[in-house]
Amino acid sequence: MIVYLLSVALLLLILEPLFTYYWDSKKLRRFPNASFLSGISDIGYILKRYRGFRSKEIHESHQEHPVVRVGPNTLSFSTPDAIRAIYGHNTPCLKGGTYVTAAGTHPSLLDVVDKQEHARKRRILSHAFATRNLEQWEFKVTDKVQKLVAQFDLLCHDKEEAIVDFRMWSNLFTIEAIADIALTVNYIDCLHSGRRATSMLIWSTKWFLSWRFVLKKLPGFFQTQWHKGQGFDEMVRYLVQQRLRRHENGEQLEDFVGCLFQDKHGDARNLEIAEIEAEVATLLDAGSDTTAISLTHAMYFLMKTPAALSRLREELHVALDGSQEVAKYATVKNLPYLHACINESLRLLPPVAFGLNRMTPPEGLTIDGTWIPGNTLVGVPAYTAHRSPLFSNSEQYQPERWLEDDIKETQGTFIPFSTGARGCIGRNISYIEQTVLLATLVQRYDLSLVDPEGNLDHEEAFNLWPGPLSLQIRRRENC
């Protein structure tokens, strides 16, 4: 009997997607497939992760087709008009069901689907993420840069020239910085590997809850990654409880959680503790990983482009006082070439490269001149948008493009933090951390690749994870 039931279940598992494909009630078969499996299963989307750089493969499909089918109910677009239709402020599209699966009982600003609930959350959090508040917290970033510099100085002191994995150090820096900004804690130690394992599957299949059970049983990479991150939620709960006790004991702390406890007038917000935990978890996870990825890519391109490194160093030499151990944000926040280098690396290798899914409204939606049926998942990969013909020599690292007047024409296609009402609220934190750290390191050290001919490896899950970035570092004279 059990064998019979299993056989029937297996047969249905095979026949259901085939039936859906041939029935084609939404007429999606008219769009070219990203892979031979795209029309019948999301598994092809997962398999692309093992064949290399998923968003790059999809971009190659977009070289021939403006719209590509990446799953049975998922379409990838590639044009500026599609960006406006899918992500713009007036879009009728909602975040897809995968966000609901990821969120759990208390969605964060990142996960929440309902537009009114999102607006409520954004109003609460906008105070915390206001540039004025973030600049008041600059001392927290400075403290973490000083700690990193102290470690690099120690390494350079022990050896005339030291070798460091900048990817690892940048991640340690961003974890420390965001923990202090969020909770006023000076040390946090948690691997985000579990989040990486989750995201590989959750953005690829509607059967995540079933896959999650299987994932825990699989040997090798997936099981190792899953178990490494099992303590993340417990850690967040513990840290929030500790921060709440400090608040109840009368400590006046300037941090992100303080803005969740009370508004700018000092009145209690009375949010559920689970909602606060959800927001803190998102900030610790997304706020550390994406900035570390951005820093790694920015440093990689500078190392690969000596002319850009030299020009940046000249700009910093004029702007910075050599006696400062850490660059001040007020000094570097408006340096044009520093920002150009950061934006150009974000353009070429955005931390989230794939198309963030949105669900079309039940009545359907016209996207880039093509009517798309309702309840279809749609998205525009940032990796592809950033290679729009609007960017000349789009595959080349050219920071100078951001200093030209016509760069304004590309504004709608530059989406490393997404765009519209659902754009990343934490982008200012990222820019503060990146500008201060990069300016400090480039001014203080001679930096070079251990392997000048090598390329940076990547693993794409939700984020575009870079591999190790081995650098030789040496203290510069009089710096």
Automatic annotation (TrEMBL):
Keywords: Heme, Iron, Metal-binding, Monooxygenase, Oxidoreductase
CDD domains: CYP67-like
Alphabetized Pfam families for the sequence: p450 (PF00067)
Keyword Iron found: yes
Database matches in PROSITE patterns: CYTOCHROME_P450 (PS00086)
UniProt-recorded Gene Ontology molecular function terms: heme binding; iron ion binding; monooxygenase activity; oxidoreductase activity, acting on paired donors, with incorporation or reduction of molecular oxygen
Cross-referenced SUPFAM superfamilies: Cytochrome P450
Binding positions for heme per the UniProt entry: 424
Keyword Cell cycle: no
Cofactor section: heme
InterPro entries given in the database record: Cyt_P450, Cyt_P450_CS, Cyt_P450_E_grp-I, Cyt_P450_sf, Cytochrome_P450_monoxygenase
Family membership noted in the UniProt record: Belongs to the cytochrome P450 family.
Protein name stated in the entry: Cytochrome p450 domain-containing protein
Record organism: Trichoderma breve
Lineage of source species: Eukaryota, Fungi, Dikarya, Ascomycota, Pezizomycotina
